[in-house]
Amino acid sequence: MAKTQAPEDAFTAEPFVPDRGGLAALRRAAAGCRGCPLHRDATQTVFGAGNADARVMLVGEQPGDQEDRQGKPFVGPAGRLLDRALAEAGIDPGETYVTNAVKHFKFTRAEPRKRRIHKAPSLRETAACAPWLAAELAVVEPELIVVLGATAGKALLGSSFRVGEVRGTLLERQVHGRPRRLVPTVHPSSVLRADEPDRDKAYAGLVADLEVAARVLAG
Ligand code: URA
Ligand code: SF4
After folding, report:
1. CB of 189 sitting under 6 A from ligand 1
2. pTM for this predicted structure
3. For 15-62, what is each residue's pLDDT tens digit?
4. Opening angle at CA 125, ends 120 and 131, nearest 5
Protein backbone atom coordinates (compact mmCIF):
# COMPACT_ATOMS: atom_id res chain seq x y z
CA MET A 1 0.00 0.00 0.00
CA ALA A 2 1.20 3.47 -0.79
CA LYS A 3 2.09 5.53 2.21
CA THR A 4 -0.67 8.06 2.86
CA GLN A 5 0.38 11.65 2.62
CA ALA A 6 -0.44 14.29 5.19
CA PRO A 7 -3.71 15.98 4.21
CA GLU A 8 -3.19 19.24 2.33
CA ASP A 9 -5.06 21.01 5.11
CA ALA A 10 -2.07 20.29 7.29
CA PHE A 11 -0.09 22.89 5.34
CA THR A 12 0.59 25.82 7.61
CA ALA A 13 3.32 28.34 8.32
CA GLU A 14 2.25 28.47 11.97
CA PRO A 15 5.13 26.45 13.52
CA PHE A 16 7.67 28.67 11.73
CA VAL A 17 6.32 31.99 13.01
CA PRO A 18 8.24 33.29 16.06
CA ASP A 19 6.02 34.64 18.82
CA ARG A 20 8.33 37.51 19.67
CA GLY A 21 10.50 39.97 17.80
CA GLY A 22 9.76 42.55 15.16
CA LEU A 23 9.79 42.49 11.40
CA ALA A 24 13.47 41.54 11.22
CA ALA A 25 12.84 38.41 13.30
CA LEU A 26 9.80 37.54 11.20
CA ARG A 27 11.72 38.01 7.96
CA ARG A 28 14.57 35.80 9.17
CA ALA A 29 12.19 33.04 10.23
CA ALA A 30 10.14 33.26 7.03
CA ALA A 31 13.29 32.60 5.02
CA GLY A 32 13.19 29.05 6.41
CA CYS A 33 9.44 28.47 6.12
CA ARG A 34 8.43 25.01 4.87
CA GLY A 35 4.76 25.43 5.71
CA CYS A 36 3.55 24.41 2.26
CA PRO A 37 5.17 22.93 -0.87
CA LEU A 38 5.69 26.29 -2.62
CA HIS A 39 9.13 26.78 -1.09
CA ARG A 40 10.48 23.83 -3.09
CA ASP A 41 10.59 25.37 -6.55
CA ALA A 42 10.89 29.05 -5.67
CA THR A 43 14.25 30.79 -5.26
CA GLN A 44 13.55 32.35 -1.88
CA THR A 45 10.91 33.65 0.49
CA VAL A 46 9.77 37.13 -0.46
CA PHE A 47 8.75 38.77 2.79
CA GLY A 48 7.02 42.14 3.09
CA ALA A 49 9.10 45.30 2.86
CA GLY A 50 8.85 48.99 3.48
CA ASN A 51 8.17 51.29 6.35
CA ALA A 52 7.55 49.42 9.61
CA ASP A 53 5.62 52.45 10.91
CA ALA A 54 3.56 52.73 7.74
CA ARG A 55 -0.01 53.98 8.07
CA VAL A 56 -0.98 51.91 5.06
CA MET A 57 -0.21 48.28 4.23
CA LEU A 58 -0.65 47.05 0.65
CA VAL A 59 -1.32 43.35 0.23
CA GLY A 60 -0.77 41.64 -3.13
CA GLU A 61 -1.08 38.04 -4.24
CA GLN A 62 2.35 36.43 -4.38
CA PRO A 63 5.81 37.38 -5.66
CA GLY A 64 6.33 37.30 -9.40
CA ASP A 65 9.38 36.27 -11.38
CA GLN A 66 11.41 39.41 -10.60
CA GLU A 67 10.41 39.41 -6.96
CA ASP A 68 11.45 35.75 -6.66
CA ARG A 69 14.90 36.58 -8.06
CA GLN A 70 15.42 39.78 -6.07
CA GLY A 71 13.76 38.70 -2.82
CA LYS A 72 11.66 41.85 -2.55
CA PRO A 73 7.93 42.40 -3.16
CA PHE A 74 6.63 44.49 -6.06
CA VAL A 75 9.95 45.24 -7.76
CA GLY A 76 8.84 44.01 -11.22
CA PRO A 77 6.43 45.49 -13.78
CA ALA A 78 3.36 45.25 -11.50
CA GLY A 79 5.27 47.06 -8.76
CA ARG A 80 6.32 49.88 -11.07
CA LEU A 81 2.73 50.36 -12.17
CA LEU A 82 1.57 50.27 -8.55
CA ASP A 83 4.10 52.91 -7.48
CA ARG A 84 3.00 55.18 -10.29
CA ALA A 85 -0.69 54.73 -9.41
CA LEU A 86 -0.01 55.35 -5.71
CA ALA A 87 1.88 58.55 -6.42
CA GLU A 88 -0.88 59.72 -8.74
CA ALA A 89 -3.46 59.04 -6.02
CA GLY A 90 -1.42 61.07 -3.52
CA ILE A 91 0.07 58.21 -1.49
CA ASP A 92 3.86 58.26 -1.15
CA PRO A 93 5.02 54.73 -2.06
CA GLY A 94 7.98 55.25 0.30
CA GLU A 95 5.61 55.55 3.25
CA THR A 96 3.85 52.25 2.68
CA TYR A 97 4.51 48.68 3.76
CA VAL A 98 4.03 46.20 0.91
CA THR A 99 3.57 42.48 1.20
CA ASN A 100 1.81 39.50 -0.37
CA ALA A 101 -0.77 36.98 0.79
CA VAL A 102 1.63 34.19 -0.26
CA LYS A 103 5.38 34.54 0.24
CA HIS A 104 6.71 32.12 -2.38
CA PHE A 105 6.44 32.39 -6.17
CA LYS A 106 4.23 29.71 -7.73
CA PHE A 107 4.81 29.07 -11.42
CA THR A 108 4.72 26.58 -14.26
CA ARG A 109 7.02 26.24 -17.24
CA ALA A 110 5.67 25.49 -20.67
CA GLU A 111 8.95 23.71 -21.44
CA PRO A 112 12.15 23.09 -19.50
CA ARG A 113 14.36 26.19 -19.35
CA LYS A 114 11.53 28.31 -20.71
CA ARG A 115 10.13 31.40 -19.06
CA ARG A 116 8.40 30.84 -15.73
CA ILE A 117 4.67 31.50 -15.92
CA HIS A 118 2.82 32.76 -12.86
CA LYS A 119 0.26 30.37 -11.44
CA ALA A 120 -2.38 31.51 -8.94
CA PRO A 121 -1.92 30.08 -5.45
CA SER A 122 -4.64 27.74 -4.19
CA LEU A 123 -6.86 28.62 -1.24
CA ARG A 124 -4.96 26.03 0.81
CA GLU A 125 -1.61 27.62 0.04
CA THR A 126 -3.03 31.04 0.83
CA ALA A 127 -4.42 29.75 4.12
CA ALA A 128 -1.09 28.07 4.91
CA CYS A 129 0.75 31.35 4.46
CA ALA A 130 -1.77 33.48 6.38
CA PRO A 131 0.09 33.35 9.72
CA TRP A 132 2.87 35.47 8.16
CA LEU A 133 0.40 38.10 7.02
CA ALA A 134 -1.28 38.07 10.44
CA ALA A 135 2.12 38.54 12.09
CA GLU A 136 3.00 41.45 9.78
CA LEU A 137 -0.33 43.11 10.56
CA ALA A 138 0.24 42.69 14.30
CA VAL A 139 3.67 44.38 14.08
CA VAL A 140 2.96 47.15 11.57
CA GLU A 141 -0.57 47.88 12.87
CA PRO A 142 -1.51 49.91 9.79
CA GLU A 143 -4.43 52.33 9.93
CA LEU A 144 -5.54 51.06 6.54
CA ILE A 145 -5.03 47.95 4.42
CA VAL A 146 -5.18 48.28 0.64
CA VAL A 147 -6.28 44.91 -0.70
CA LEU A 148 -4.84 44.27 -4.17
CA GLY A 149 -7.08 41.75 -5.90
CA ALA A 150 -8.97 38.57 -5.13
CA THR A 151 -6.23 36.44 -3.55
CA ALA A 152 -5.38 39.14 -0.99
CA GLY A 153 -9.10 39.69 -0.37
CA LYS A 154 -9.74 36.02 0.28
CA ALA A 155 -6.68 35.81 2.53
CA LEU A 156 -7.88 38.73 4.65
CA LEU A 157 -11.68 38.52 4.44
CA GLY A 158 -12.52 34.94 3.54
CA SER A 159 -13.27 32.93 0.43
CA SER A 160 -16.55 34.73 -0.33
CA PHE A 161 -14.61 37.95 -1.12
CA ARG A 162 -15.39 39.38 -4.59
CA VAL A 163 -13.25 42.35 -5.56
CA GLY A 164 -15.81 43.67 -8.06
CA GLU A 165 -18.43 44.02 -5.32
CA VAL A 166 -16.38 46.08 -2.88
CA ARG A 167 -13.55 47.80 -4.76
CA GLY A 168 -13.10 51.48 -4.01
CA THR A 169 -15.09 51.31 -0.77
CA LEU A 170 -13.98 51.53 2.84
CA LEU A 171 -14.66 48.28 4.71
CA GLU A 172 -14.49 47.86 8.46
CA ARG A 173 -14.09 44.16 9.21
CA GLN A 174 -12.55 41.70 11.61
CA VAL A 175 -9.29 40.38 10.20
CA HIS A 176 -7.65 37.57 12.18
CA GLY A 177 -9.76 38.63 15.16
CA ARG A 178 -8.92 42.35 15.07
CA PRO A 179 -10.99 45.21 13.68
CA ARG A 180 -9.36 46.57 10.52
CA ARG A 181 -10.13 49.18 7.89
CA LEU A 182 -9.62 48.06 4.33
CA VAL A 183 -9.98 49.51 0.83
CA PRO A 184 -9.97 46.79 -1.86
CA THR A 185 -8.97 47.35 -5.45
CA VAL A 186 -7.87 45.30 -8.43
CA HIS A 187 -4.46 43.75 -8.68
CA PRO A 188 -2.00 45.92 -10.65
CA SER A 189 -1.14 42.87 -12.82
CA SER A 190 -4.73 42.84 -14.08
CA VAL A 191 -4.13 46.35 -15.45
CA LEU A 192 -1.00 45.10 -17.23
CA ARG A 193 -2.94 42.16 -18.69
CA ALA A 194 -5.71 44.38 -20.12
CA ASP A 195 -5.42 45.26 -23.81
CA GLU A 196 -5.53 48.81 -25.10
CA PRO A 197 -7.79 50.78 -24.91
CA ASP A 198 -9.13 48.93 -21.84
CA ARG A 199 -5.81 49.29 -20.10
CA ASP A 200 -6.13 53.05 -19.65
CA LYS A 201 -9.57 52.59 -18.16
CA ALA A 202 -8.34 49.81 -15.87
CA TYR A 203 -5.43 52.00 -14.73
CA ALA A 204 -7.75 54.95 -14.08
CA GLY A 205 -9.97 52.62 -12.02
CA LEU A 206 -7.00 51.55 -9.91
CA VAL A 207 -6.00 55.18 -9.30
CA ALA A 208 -9.59 56.10 -8.38
CA ASP A 209 -9.71 53.29 -5.79
CA LEU A 210 -6.35 54.37 -4.38
CA GLU A 211 -7.71 57.92 -4.11
CA VAL A 212 -10.40 56.52 -1.80
CA ALA A 213 -7.59 55.10 0.33
CA ALA A 214 -5.76 58.47 0.23
CA ARG A 215 -8.90 60.27 1.45
CA VAL A 216 -9.32 57.80 4.33
CA LEU A 217 -5.70 58.46 5.35
CA ALA A 218 -6.23 62.21 5.10
CA GLY A 219 -9.09 61.74 7.61
N1 URA B 1 2.37 40.69 -7.89
C2 URA B 1 2.10 40.56 -6.58
O3 URA B 1 0.99 40.29 -6.16
N4 URA B 1 3.09 40.75 -5.74
C5 URA B 1 4.31 41.08 -6.09
O6 URA B 1 5.15 41.23 -5.22
C7 URA B 1 4.57 41.21 -7.48
C8 URA B 1 3.59 41.01 -8.36
FE1 SF4 C 1 5.72 29.08 3.97
FE2 SF4 C 1 4.09 30.73 2.68
FE3 SF4 C 1 6.27 29.85 1.48
FE4 SF4 C 1 4.24 28.20 1.86
S5 SF4 C 1 4.25 30.03 0.56
S6 SF4 C 1 6.42 27.76 2.30
S7 SF4 C 1 3.48 28.90 3.87
S8 SF4 C 1 6.21 31.17 3.28
Report:
1. yes
2. 0.95
3. 999 999 999 999 999 999 999 999 999 999 999 999 999 999 999 999
4. 125
